[in-house]
Amino acid sequence: MADSDRGEPIDVLLVEDDEGDVLMTKEAFEYYKIRNRLHVVTDGEQALQFLRQAGPYADAPRPGLILLDVNLPRLSGLEVLAELKRDPDLLFIPTVMLTTSQAEEDILRSYELHANAYVSKPVDFEHFIEAIRQIDDFFLALVKLPVLPA
Fold this sequence. Notes:
With 150 residues, the chain is an alpha/beta fold. The protein has a single domain (9-141), classed as 3-Layer(aba) Sandwich (Rossmann fold), CATH 3.40.50. The chain is built from 5 helices and 5 strands. The protein has a 5-stranded parallel β-sheet, sandwiched between helices. Helix 1 crosses helix 5 and helix 2 packs parallel to helix 3 (77-86). The chain is globular.
């Protein structure tokens, strides 16, 4: 979709502890010229601080999309998702579980906790960056999202 059809860029929060996956996500944003601003935190506690604009993230923007890994240090992605969906200020932010886990219990639990999607990370670079492009196209170009307060 042409950039002119996409509206204003939004902030995307990537919660990912694997440096290689962070790098591939950044490269996907560059390769596909995704104009949205990518922010990265590496564990579940940092994610909640970022989202609640607490501690070192007091000036963090409110993301329009969260890409959340299941397997994270300190608080798992599922624990973060549960917290998000309990918080009336955060529950409407679309959250995509983007993970290597293909465990049925992780998939079921993610949807029980109201994840908007569950995407298994492709292992090779080409398929990985294509998955990022498709997530961006779907959630940020095709789907109508609520306007969230800042």
